[in-house]
Request: fold
Amino acid sequence: MTAQLFVVATPIGHLDDITYRAIETLRNVDLIAAEDTRQSAMLLKHFNINTPLTACHDHNESHKIEQLIQQLLAGQSIALISDAGTPLISDPGFKLVRAVQAHNIKVTPIPGACAAIAGLSAVGLPSDRFSFEGFLPSKSSQRLATLEQLKNENQTLIFYEAPHRILASIQDMITVFGPDRHVGFAREITKTFETIKKTTLAELAQWVESDRNQQKGEIVVIVAGATEKVDLQAEKLDHILQRLLQDVSVKTAAQIAADLFDIKKKVAYQRALELSQ
Ligand code: SAM
Reply:
């Protein structure tokens, strides 16, 4: 194995979600740099991996980098892991990867679980374009300011949130995005109490408030982009026009749809015409 840094994803709950390649890499490297060595020791024990561990976390990353670079330059291979999921994704590692790259040492990703992607894959919101926003600020005033900047973003927004802040964050989202914005809630993904739900922000706030269990564990909140409502409206318009066109003329269908959707008759007529062909 040529000396290199492997960035290895580990499970976000269910231990079976580690890849064969991750296990093999963790067994074969000379050293594993872990966010929390005690936590990672349990994972390694489970998979019978005996590679030595060293701590590399937010508080010692800058100082640790030099030591790890020296080991890599000396020909040792190192794997970087975090407590769960993919390192660098709301986890330490960026400074290390950048420094290793600057020394022309190879950095190899060993992909696997990531809560943001797992959540996005199951909540049923548009996934063609999305923005990973990580954790929102803990102070409400700063959180509102951050959300305000995202208000008109039309791609899906992915947030990580701590359980004790979930309700306050959802309430701030209602303030900025409005109560009807669609939202996905992915809690305890791959674990016993896994909960995946798609609803509106107002309904989510009510539900999370009334069921305290929803304020526990690990949570990903996925908010539909600013255009999602428009898309839905368009879908509904098509549906109703198609039904109307079975019984009435294009002109009448357009008139009824324009009244129902409070849109210009010309717009409804154009769409009705397209659908009738
Ligand atoms: N690096 C990790 C990843 O790849 O997803 C994320 C680490 S970040 C410190 C931890 C946050 O990720 C949690 O607060 C939660 O928002 C989210 N998270 C991690 N595991 C999760 C799970 N099983 N279910 C839902 N969210 C999870």
About this structure: Residues 12-13, 82, 84-86, 89-91, 114-116, 160-162, 186-191, 218-220 surround S-adenosylmethionine (CB under 6 Å). The first helix runs from residue 20 to 28. DSSP finds eleven helices and ten strands in the chain.
